[in-house]
Design goal:
With 97 residues, this protein is an all-alpha fold. It has helices spanning 4-24, 28-51, 57-82, 87-96.
């Protein structure tokens, strides 16, 4: 069962395009609810990993990567929604971070 926390973390990566789609199509409250669920999985995978004593280097890496993927993607969506002419420049800046 040591793979359960990693599955929870990877689910956060798969929820990112769902949230982005919902926000871009003006389902903001639904997107916010899915975002809150994804944020909850960030907390949950750490609790489960410690409870199962399943902490790993891969889990630590994928957890940080999932956080960055979700936040940067949603920042890009928010920027596109409010300032569509600047999207390319902001996307390049986010890639540098």
């Amino acid at each position: 069962m040591p793979f359960i926390p990693s599955i929870i973390t990877v689910s956060r990566v798969f929820l990112t395009p769902v949230i982005a789609y919902l926000w871009m199509n003006h389902f903001v409250f639904t997107g916010a609810a899915v975002f809150i669920f994804a944020a909850w999985t960030d907390w949950l995978d750490g609790i489960v990993a410690r409870a199962l004593k399943a902490e790993s280097d891969f889990g630590a890496f994928i957890d940080g990567a999932a956080d960055k993927i979700m936040i940067l993607s949603l920042l890009w969506v928010a920027e596109y929604y409010y300032h569509p002419r600047l999207t390319g420049q902001v996307f390049l800046l986010l890639l540098l971070l």
